[in-house]
Design brief:
Strand order of the largest sheet: 3-2-1-4-5-6-9
Number of strands: 9
CATH architecture: 3-Layer(aba) Sandwich
Strand content: 15-25%
CATH superfamily: NAD(P)-binding Rossmann-like Domain
Order of helices and strands: EHEHEHEHEHEEEHE
Distance between the termini: 42 Å
Shape: globular
Radius of gyration: 18 Å
CATH topology: Rossmann fold
């Protein structure tokens, strides 16, 4: 039997590159998915997949920065597919700037999307999962929130906050049959998709001495020979595991998919 057969998932930030690749795997594993994102342009990445599985994929325009949007998205998902088993929170915001130059606007957006957005989505889905005494929640974090590799403080700060929020939610929701976990990838090869710039983000130059991942990395890079980057398929496999019954005894954890980068000093 397929790992996600007849499971219903909601992807918040569902138009992102990694969510699109995860969507392929969810379709292969028998799931039904509602993609939620703030603008229809992000759904262009999944056009071919949606055309192949029109009966198992829906889209919904909504922002994780608006509680009413999240509430309506979950209501839509249950109306379309009858239940909600899985919530995957992919939405995030890089921002930019350093400790002196960071704009309050960017700090506020990063908090609103990366941390509070996760909270709003979980709050909205909770009644549906509680009703069925079942749920898998996956929050997409980053090594930037675990062991900073020279990313903006707006990104590192609130990815770290999302990991802490994950633990708190896991403790609170365990009684309702709901597991809550996060994952923290390092550098990912996203060349399959053209980048769609984040609204309001600004160019960022890592501070001198920052640890760098990715191709050519030395200290701070992957330990796996010839593998500086993870493929999006490798990340998607982990998301499928975290969303399936195979992960039933995993909650409050953060899976580090980074080729060993996190174990470095």
């Amino acid at each position: 039997m397929k790992k996600l057969q007849d499971k219903v998932a909601v992807f918040v930030g569902g138009g992102s590159a990694i969510a699109t690749v995860a969507l392929r795997h969810f379709m292969n594993e028998g799931a039904k998915v509602v993609l939620v994102d703030v603008d229809k342009k992000y759904f262009t990445r999944s056009e071919d997949i949606r055309a192949k599985y029109p009966e198992r994929i829906r889209t919904f325009i909504g922002a994780c920065s608006v509680q009413e949007d999240m509430d309506k998205a979950m209501e839509f998902a249950e109306k379309e597919f009858g239940k909600i088993d899985i919530l995957c929170n992919y939405a995030g915001f890089h921002g930019g700037g350093d400790v002196v130059s960071v704009q309050k606007k960017l700090w506020d957006i990063a908090e609103d999307v990366t941390c509070l957005g996760t909270y709003r989505a979980v709050r909205a889905v909770y009644p549906y999962m509680k009703k069925n005494h079942y749920g898998r929640i996956m929050n997409f974090a980053s090594i930037g929130g675990r062991a900073n590799r020279g990313v903006p403080i707006t990104y590192a700060g609130f990815k770290g906050a999302a990991i802490g929020l994950t633990r708190a939610l896991a403790l609170e929701l365990a009684k309702d049959g709901i597991t809550v976990n996060s994952m923290a990838p390092a550098s990912i090869d996203t060349t399959e998709f053209e980048r769609i710039p984040e609204k309001d983000s600004v160019p960022f130059t890592p501070p001198k001495g920052a640890l760098k991942g990715g191709p050519g990395a030395t200290r701070g890079g992957s330990f796996i020979p010839g593998r500086p980057l993870a493929t999006m398929d490798e990340i998607a496999h982990t998301i499928v595991f975290m969303s399936s019954d195979d992960s039933a005894f995993l909650t409050g954890d953060c899976l580090d998919v980074n080729g060993g980068q996190f174990m470095q000093p």
